[in-house]
Design brief:
The complex is a heterodimer of chains A (416) and B (475). Chain A is mainly α and 416 residues long. Chain A is built from 15 helices and three strands. Chain A has one domain (3-411). With 475 residues, chain B is α+β, with helices and mostly antiparallel strands. Chain B has a domain at 206-356 and 373-470: DD-peptidase/beta-lactamase superfamily (Beta-lactamase). Chain B has helices at 2-39, 45-52, 80-90, 101-104, 106-109, 116-125, 140-149, 184-187, 197-200, 210-220, 262-267, 271-281, 283-292, 318-325, 335-346, 382-398, 453-470, and strands at 53-54, 58-59, 65-70, 73-76, 129-130, 133-136, 156-162, 168-174, 229-231, 235-237, 240-242, 258-260, 351-352, 357-361, 367-370, 375-377, 411-418, 427-434, 441-447. The radius of gyration of chain B is 25 Å and the shape is globular. The chains are: A mainly alpha (416), B alpha+beta (475).
Amino acid sequence: MSDRKKKRAHEPGRNTLLAMMVFFFLAFFLLALKDGKWESFALSVVVPAIIYVGTAGISHLFPSDRLLLSLTNFLCALGVLVLYRLSPSRGMSQALNYGVGVGCMMLCAMLVRYVRSWKWLTGLIMVGSIGLLALPLLIGKETNGAKNWFYIGSYSVQPSEIVKLALLISVSYLLSQRKVILSLLFAGACLLMLMLQKDLGTALLYFGVVFVLLYTATGSVPLLIGGVAGGAAAAVAGYQMFAHVKKRVAIWLNPWADSDGAGYQIVQSLIAIVNGGAWGVGLGLGNAQVIPEYYNDFIFSVILHEFGLVFGLVVLCMYLFIIIRGIMIARRCRTVFHALLATGCASLIALQTFVIIGGNIKLIPLTGVTLPFISYGGTSMLCSLCVIGLLQGVASRNKAGVREDRELAMQGGDTR
Amino acid sequence: MKHLQKNIRRVAIFLCALFALLAAWGAYSLLTYGSRWFASSANTFMRTRKKNVIAGDILDRNNVVLATTINGQRVYQDDLNTRRAVVHAVGDSGSNVNNSAESFFASYLYGFNSSFLERLSFALRGEQRRGDTVRLTIDSKLAAYIASIFPSGKAGAVVVMNYQTGEVLTEQSFPTFDPQNITDSVKNDPQKPFFNRAIQGLYTPGSTFKMVTAASVIENYTNYDTLTLNCTGLLTLGNRIITDAGTNLQENKLTTHGNITLKRAFQVSCNNSFAQLALQLGDARLRKTAEDFGFNDNFLFRDLVVENSSYPTTNRTDGEIAWTGAGQSALTASPLHMCMIASAIANDGVMMEPKALLSATAPNGTQRAGLTSKVYRKPLTAEQAAVLKDYMRAVVTGGTGASAAISGTKVCGKTGSAEIDGQEYTNAWFVGFLDESASPYALSIVVENAGGGGSVAAPIARKIFVWMLKNGYIQ
């Protein structure tokens, strides 16, 4: 056996791939036996195939972080499974989103790997983001109190999701160039646009990510205190300014006061969770459709309902591993820009997961952000996978750096 | 780069802490509130469940069947009077009564706790699944007796519990109804027969709250037994006037007690003295004692959903504080909570958690859950409890509660006549217990809009205790 083969057998995440494929094959096959539809049989083959391509295929073509890929693919496939089980049409289109998302992930990874000068690209991204964020204000539609969508043909687009990526790249780049003021101005402009769209959940995420990046780059304690104070002030201001925020906070404090009306969502979410118990009611046996927005904001409650708390905890750990893996990638970076970018990606996933799951279990007021990788929605799925793509790009830069070092060492001297 | 590494590590710790918070909050809220979410009437998952599982039986403590399922139909106790007497504790198939055994113990009744193997064995035998049999602490015979002596046409509640174990022998609400025959007149009755006043009704405790005020005095003043209080019959504080029962200001007729001791003031239930005591103690100390007894706490008992009692925290003028000492103002408590307060005094200062579930037994005979008595609070020391017990004994031997006395048996108690705006008569209260270690029973009685506690509620207490002693409620 060659050295290369031996090495690959020890790579983390290799044995899990087969287990994941079998898990999803069996899950879709179970649903297929129940409903007897050809789509279900097709998905029982297609989803494991995407997992294979998204995990083994990518790491074959491109030096990447195998464990990160496995975890991401598992969560995406889980989203397709849960959505398909509750609403087949949404599940089918989510499978498509997943497939396309894996492609976008590759593109983002290559972008980070091969682009050497970010100066002009960052400028372009910044102008583009402001333009994109302005679009829903001009031609958007209002849903659930927020005006953050617009339509291209029959496709709905949520620019705030795409701008997340732009924000990560540009703020990381500006901070790595010590252009703190400019980065703050840009982030502030984005936040203002989101406030105008009343998309406060996403605004909270942007704020969190920029704040984490700022702290990572400068390590300044006054900034830390100022940021927390600023965030608190913004939260109070948001509460005073927007009626729908006041309503959400009131629902959060006591959803049972109006359990048939305003509190219905969260009450049904909590009830679905306790009905699931430790081991869940079983795939295909629950009736979590009673929760409004079960496919989007409350998809984690659906998972807890059908798969149980133990599985839910496992899913939570998967997110945590993704984040820890992201942080490990950040710590191995050789340039400040890449370290910041990886930290930003990891914290974006972490904060977004925290904000929506916290809302589902009534830890914090519910905000309309999506659960990364799992929630229904093309833009959200694409964006989450692109964030992983950025991380993969950084990881591959790290690997390339290590290889260069080794070659240098073998040549026995400094040839640079 | 070194600083960067350190900062990244800190960010990582922060992010991990967020996830730990999620898991911890999830576990905490599920453990504390899970059973309440489950029992909520908004639980639509239950409806599907009910179609697939045969609900288990509900028995009383002597294994009398209170509810069973025959051919998919929920059927309640055969005897009409018993059925009506226990309906608030047991519940009805239409979920008209909130938080009854039918809904609160649904996880047992519909077999939610059954293991995979049990489910499999039902499936293999081709039978429909059966839920667990739930045995309550309720005594249906006692409940039926109480229903037969409760003043007809009056609203109110009666709670009887074992103060040593916390077992609730009965929690009844009046008016009551027949779960087998819910008519429109029941549904439209302005007295709301579906409402369980015993655990959900928030009443002004009136003079029964003097148990708490007296406890606060005993805790805070070592010379409580030599204190001399001067009752002039009238105490004016701002726009609030404190008077005693029998006073008529128009006719300039005042009830005065003169110079009396704390024990005497308790015995004759002197509002004036207790108002003065509340002012001397001050709001903070009185509130502390009340909170020690469970006021302002979020009751999260495992077996019962009891409405939270409140000691007022806003608008604390002298007049309000004075009236609080005598049990009026914005104070509220459920009959069950008042019964728990008497129980704590009876049980040497230890307040037991009220218990409603004796056991839950799976169809194959394994016991799923049993009774485990638990201390809820310790509001008093044994010495303080003994002093209060002596005061409560004096109420029955020579005070307002004389009509609860039974010769040869140590009955202790406190009466209350709570004034309610817009009501013709006061709400009659009696809260008391048997100071007999062989018969450790406490009770709490409220009769709405009926008159004085001493004349209306105390005789009912006497009848209940006499019946219990005669029917062998002696351990």
